[in-house]
Specification:
Layout: E1 18-22, H1 29-46, E2 50-53, H2 72-86, E3 90-93, H3 97-103, E4 109-112, H4 120-128, E5 132-136, H5 146-154, E6 161-165, E7 168-169, E8 175-176, H6 181-186, E9 190-194, E10 200-201, E11 210-211, H7 216-225, E12 230-236, E13 250-251, H8 255-270
Parallel strand pairs: 1-2, 1-12, 2-3, 3-4, 4-5, 5-6, 6-9, 9-12, 12-13
Antiparallel strand pairs: 7-8, 10-11
Helix pairs in contact: 1-2, 1-8, 3-4, 4-5, 7-8
Pathway: Carbohydrate biosynthesis; 3-deoxy-D-manno-octulosonate biosynthesis; 3-deoxy-D-manno-octulosonate from D-ribulose 5-phosphate: step 2/3; Bacterial outer membrane biogenesis; lipopolysaccharide biosynthesis
Organism: Pukyongia salina
Keywords: Cytoplasm, Transferase
């Protein structure tokens, strides 16, 4: 997929990886604008094409009392405001077929969660909006099998499709990234590595997903070294108090150093 097909995307001439980054969930307008402002400034300095990420609702929760959102329309309006204020594209995930047309009015990229990527009606509904569709690889799926999910999008006449690896289940409570899958998926779609979700530790006894944020740099560096086209990183200025996925998010204060290192690795690879 050509990055230029994403509205408002910047720095596409830089031959850099692109970045999807933001909070796991939209918790409010102030927090979303604060995070977006910080990441926009960093990516502009480093010439990284940037897409702001934020879930307008969280449907895949471990417990019934987990945070699910501030209200669909309210959160979608915040995503629209982020896009307009900073002149950047946005991405959010959808969970039901009816969500596709609604969310498409507010964002530029529709994301299919990993648990739902085999739901044909959902994938087709996203494809039929004409928006860019980001397909998260199921934790239970091989890289090779994702070509069938991609074909569901392209068979709808939509060539704007991304594939994102977010790790594979290892036992009951851990994730691993098989980097052999990166070149496999790149052979049929633009490929992203979801760094932070790859470090989740799901199915904890407490019903709250754990994580290994100290390994974010390791996974991200390996992703760039193996040639991913883009990175997906959830970040927050106060991960310990984030309302969703705080255990595996990157502290916003650490983002610039990480991205600077990754740009240096990418530049080295580009000159090999």
């Amino acid at each position: 997929m050509n990055l230029e097909s994403i509205p408002k995307i910047k720095h596409t001439e830089a031959n850099n990886f692109f970045l999807m980054a933001g909070p796991c969930a939209i918790e409010g307008e102030e927090m979303a604008l604060l995070i977006a402002e910080k990441v926009v400034a960093i990516t502009n300095r480093l010439n990284i094409p940037y897409i702001f990420k934020g879930s307008y609702k969280k449907a895949n929760r471990s417990r019934i009392d987990s945070f699910t959102g501030i209200g669909d329309e309210k959160a979608l309006e915040i995503l629209k405001k982020v896009s307009e204020k900073f002149d950047i594209p946005t991405v959010t995930d959808i969970h039901e077929s009816g969500d596709a047309a609604i969310a498409a009015q507010y964002v530029d990229v529709l994301q299919i969660p990993a648990f739902l990527v085999r739901q044909t009606d959902l994938v087709v509904a996203a494809a039929n909006t004409g928006k860019v569709v980001n397909l998260k690889k199921g934790q239970f799926m091989s890289p090779e099998s994702m070509k069938h999910a991609v074909k569901k999008v392209t068979d709808c006449g939509n060539e704007k499709v991304l594939v994102t690896d977010r790790g594979t289940m290892f036992g009951y409570q851990d994730m691993v990234v098989d980097f052999r899958g990166i070149p496999t998926m790149k052979s049929f779609a633009t490929t992203v590595l979801d760094v932070t979700h790859s470090l989740q530790q799901p199915n904890q006894a407490a019903g709250v997903t754990g994580g290994r944020p100290e390994m974010i740099s390791t996974i991200a560096r390996a992703g760039i070294a193996t040639g991913v086209d883009g990175l997906f990183i959830e970040t927050h200025f106060d991960p310990a108090n984030a309302k969703s996925d705080g255990a595996n998010m990157l502290d916003l204060s650490l983002l610039e150093k990480l991205l600077s290192d990754l740009v240096a690795i990418r530049n080295t690879i580009n000159h090999l």
